[in-house]
Amino acid sequence: DSHCLPFRLTILSPNPNMDIFADTADIEEIRKLNELGIIDGVTTNPSLIAKSGREIREVLAEICELVPGPISGETVSSDAEGMVREGRWLREIANNMVVKVPLTPEGIKACYQLSDEGHPVNVTLCFSANQALLAAKSGATFISPFVGRLDDISSEGMQLIQEIRMIYDNYDFSTEILTASARGPMHILEAAKIGSDVVTAPPKAIWQMFNHPLTDKGLKAFLDDWEKTGQKLGQSG
Ligand code: E4P
Description:
With 237 residues, the chain is an alpha/beta fold. It has helices at 5-12, 27-34, 46-52, 56-66, 80-91, 105-116, 129-137, 147-152, 157-171, 185-194, 203-208, 213-229, and strands at residues 19-23, 41-43, 71-74, 97-102, 121-126, 142-145, 176-179, 198-201. The chain has an 8-stranded parallel β-barrel, surrounded by 6 helices. The longest helix is centred in the last third of the chain and has 17 residues, at 213-229. Residues 23, 43, 45, 124, 144, 146, 148-149, 180-181, 183, 200 line the site of erythose-4-phosphate (E4P).
């Protein structure tokens, strides 16, 4: 029964807690979310670093200091040798740095080498379950399937997360599924229902998870009623 599939798979998922990463290099946005205690890590990419307008080493060091979880920084070389060199450089920034490499044969080769040296690797730009299988085989710590960009071309992004979940669980691969390119709260919700280990989303989408008109309406009624009592709470005497 296909309706039962996501729930069964959730139980088999290697990570019992669903992690939420902030997909941004904006330090102020990260700081605001981090104060809520709901952020487990951060992902960046060359476009996000460019958008921050800051020097890569400096901004990544600051993020690593602020958030104790995994912080992804991406390589920009196109050959494995260059990616490995950049990966080692990134890993010197802080112990919680994760090296992000693209899902190309050279990226997979670099992932294999870096993982073998004990560095955590996030394989990015994944758009198919076969690509995710290759990343797991090469020892990736995280695989980043891009759901939003698949939706953009009228493909079902979440279908890919379901397929990868099934394949990884079939063989007990320890690579964590990091649902990426999430664009809104529904992507986060769907990823959680499927049993994605992690979802990375822009701060705006994470804040949107709070929204419910009944919360606002209920709170207003509580405070209006309280006001009528004329009492003060938390003041002695
Ligand atoms: C992944 O880690 C990328 O940084 C990101 O999720 C891509 O998102 P976008 O498709 O919204 O650019």
